[in-house]
Amino acid sequence: MNLIELELVQAPRFRIDMRSIHPTDLATRTASQIEHLELPIGRQTIPLGELFKVRCGNDDHSDATIRLRGDCQSCDSIGHRMSAGEWIVEGDCGDYLGKEMQAGSITVEGNVADHTAQAMRGGQIKIRGNVGDYLGGPASGERSGMSGGEIHVSGNTGNQTGYRLRRGTIIIEGNAGKNTAAEMVAGTIAIHGRVGDHMGHGMRRGTILLSQRPPLSPFGFTEPRRESPAILSILLTQFSQITNGESQFVNQLQTNLHDSHRVLGDKAVQGQGEIFWFANEFVA
């Protein structure tokens, strides 16, 4: 394996733009060459080696695995437009993780700030901690949010999760904030914990799976009906593959596969989005 380790020497007082650091690029470089790469700091740049201790074993030219260590809350845009390879972040990190990501994988052992997976197109992101606002949302000035890929969050997410989601899958083991799946166009969101107000507001299509009955407006969604459609079995298989069996939600879905409630909406926009929740949690 072509492993490259970047250890933050000291947490800086400024933001670090990591968008130029790609596994495919670092795979062919020596440690010295990596240290001399310039990182944007506002309108200036700084050599990577002044911020990070670099260790690498370039035993081949395959796509690299970059392991980032330290308190990296000031590191933004990790995995920006990533097309191959792997990032492993052993700690917290900043905004715009996985922005416009196309392929490859990112694993974060800590928490992530806002705008994670903005306009994501493919690949896989696993976050062991919590995530801030706007997970899977659109890039600035764009209408469509995440259009592909898979995200698994072990903790909670903030507000506006899955805003204008077009395709892809988001699995959240904890709670999700307000306006989750607002204006959702397609794709799938699964949430094991609680959800905030205004979930699914303006959603047109797509599928949401919940452990608990959500706070929904009767004017926006149909009356609940007890159903057990075949799509749930298909999603169970997909979720099991994404989470590698490390999911409370998957376990609960398997237990309640043939006992769920379903509503459609948002009726205000003639939407046909589906929301399911397990009947043994809240029986209407």
UniProtKB/TrEMBL annotation:
Domain of life from the UniProt record: Bacteria
GO biological process terms, semicolon-separated: methanogenesis
Keywords annotated in UniProt: Hydrolase, Transferase
Signal peptide range in chain numbering: none
Keyword Transferase recorded: yes
GO molecular function, one term: transition metal ion binding
Keyword Hydrolase: yes
Domain named Glutamate synthase alpha subunit C-terminal: residues: 55-210
Pfam families: GXGXG
Name of the protein described by the UniProt record: Formyltransferase/hydrolase complex Fhc subunit C
Gene name of the encoded protein: fhcC
